[in-house]
Structure of Tetratricopeptide repeat protein:
Amino acid sequence: MLRSWQDVVAKWQLVPRAASKAAQEGPCEADKVFGEALDALEDGRLDEALRQFEAAAQLRDHHLDQIGIGDVYLARGGLRLALVHYRKAVEAAPTDELTVIAVSQLRVAAGEAASAVDELEKLVAAHPDDPVARYYLASTLYSVTEQVRSQTGDERLVMTTERQLAICTHAAERILQLHVDDRELNRGARLLQAEIAALRRWTWIRPVVAEALAIVIVVCGVAGAIAGGMTGSVPVVVLSVLAGGGLLFAVVQRFRRQVWRLQAELTEDSIAKPGVE
């Protein structure tokens, strides 16, 4: 599903630029009907918007009307019907900014946000000063972070693999680089960065046991080295040092974890929907 209603309608901010082309290609009546449809869509009056977009499509053959119809179905969760009309828009104007954005949000709603990122990156590269293109890229990247993470039975999102952390790290950094005028997106990206930093920290499992074992290993290693020194046995000294170091390393490996690994172990039985591996 989409992150918010804004992801359906925000792209229509581009309409003044796109509509000027539409006005030259269709009769005035079609432009009027289209404008009424767009007003209805932005107000959330979906039944009226659908009627008006379909009426405009009867009066002319223009991709904006097909995008509008697709948007109504997308807002209602009718992804297959949205796809039918977005495809018509793609056939008519495959490189149009509104078309690219509409198709990208259909992918997001279908749970395939990651597949929409490349096209939106190209759009931002072509229109670096366009706040609408930057917004959609940022919003889609945030949807990626939600879709790649694992989900517990109580619908809590958790990062349980190194790849999930890497994807979320990149997405959060890129969102903030885009400087979008959306407080929720920026706040979400910063919270994600803070969560990732916390998950990458190292922590001790059963620290009392680990400390006790480390003390025993050090004492035994020192005792062995002293005994070897007193008997003049260099091999015993070397063996004591190497064995002690190896055992200490084993203790660290056994009892020290990055927080995300510990989280993955603790939530393993409660994961209802695994994320990317």
Q: What stands out?
A: The beta strands are 150-152, 157-158, 202-204, 256-258, 271-273. The two ends are 22 Å apart (CA to CA). Residues 203-268 form one domain.
